[in-house]
Amino acid sequence: MFIKDLKGHTSVLTILCLMSVLIFGNSEAVANSSVASSQLTLEQAVQIAQNNDPWLESNKFRQQSISAQSTAAGSLPDPMVSISVANLPVDSFDFSQEAMTQLKFGVTQALPRGDSLALSQKRLQQISQEFPLQRQDRKAKVKAAISQLWLDIFLTAQTIELIEKDRPLFEQLAETASINYSSAMGQTSQQDVIRAQVELTRLDDRLSQLRQQLISNKAQLVEWLTSLNHSQWAMREFELPDNLPAITLGSEHLLSENRNEYSEKLIQHLSNHPQLVAFEQKIKASDTSIELAKQSYKPQWNLNASYGYRDDNPMGNSRSDFFSVGVSFDVPLFTENRQDQQVTSSIKEREAYKADKWLMLRNMLASVRNFQGQLAELDSRRQLFNNKLLQEMQQQAESTLNAYTNDRGDFAEVMRARIAELNTKIDAMTVEVNYLKTVVQLNYLFTQAEQ
């Protein structure tokens, strides 16, 4: 009856309902939200992932394997021992019949070419020094990967929260459109009612997709956090803090204002990245490989000694035993197809490592400039959202709602304005997260090798 008493205007009840949603909608969403069973900070996630990374353990075993090989490579080869019977007569097989018959004990020791033993050991030691650098790079990569995944989860969770907070408002708008249409008050049409319901359905579908994405991202994060000895995060649900973590850009002074310039300080700084320092170790090891290949031009020596035992003659007279000593060596005369090619192969391998190092440094320099440009644009967008766009979209939404409640606006405009305001909030959060993800990428590139 009260609604029918109003003439030409939307009911006071409708206005009060809309205002109550605007004021109390957010608090209801917060009250109805489930309490997190546990919170996982970014620092915790990075620390757990690094501690539980099986790749690091595998890398340590490989280093130990190479170190053991280096010890073995510096040792002389085992001597060869021989035992033989020489000049045994076949007519009687009598050991004492002939004076030439002997029981011989011999030993032969091979001596490596030149300094090949020391060089082989040095080369393997140089290779083993790459592994700590690989682990440093792996830890930095894990930190970057976990940070980006954590931020993706945070963005998805915050987007869900924003939509859930605004959903009661869209429900109230749909209810208002239905009441106005059924009471034939104002300019509300059946199309407005259908549109309101469609937007609610689209919000529900959007929430469903976001929850699916959240489940997938959390599963990926749990994979990083789980190990045989540490699986608490795999056994229970976790939530993230409500605020973004404080991720600061390190070595910001290296970024030049002119994005097309590469300063000497930046090149030197990137050259100390664990990956590039590891390439330096590869180059050093390949230098040693060249020296090792050159040892093939030197002869290989073999020392041998033998003792020949002779039995007494048939008359019982004693025969003197024999002792022999000798040396043998090969003569590298035909080196064109073997030794020369080995040296050439080692040289080419070293040059390939140098080219790979330069290629990686060039890629890093380009990545720094790329992320620097993205960071500048994202910062501009942050300022635009915080200083203008968010406020303007809120004013637009309020203005269209006021116009509609006074029969001077269209319901479709109200829905569009509210959806645009919600999307702007989500876009603002996305920009904040993308800004931090770009900082994470730059921080990885600025990682320094620990000496």
From TrEMBL:
Keywords of the record, alphabetical order, are: Coiled coil
Coiled-coil residue spans: 193-220, 387-432
Q: Does the keyword Lipoprotein apply?
A: no
Segments traversing the membrane: none
| Pfam family name, one | OEP
- Which family is this protein grouped under? Belongs to the outer membrane factor (OMF) (TC 1.B.17) family.
Protein name (database record): TolC family protein
Biological source species: Kangiella aquimarina
Q: What is the lineage of its organism?
A: Bacteria, Pseudomonadati, Pseudomonadota, Gammaproteobacteria, Kangiellales
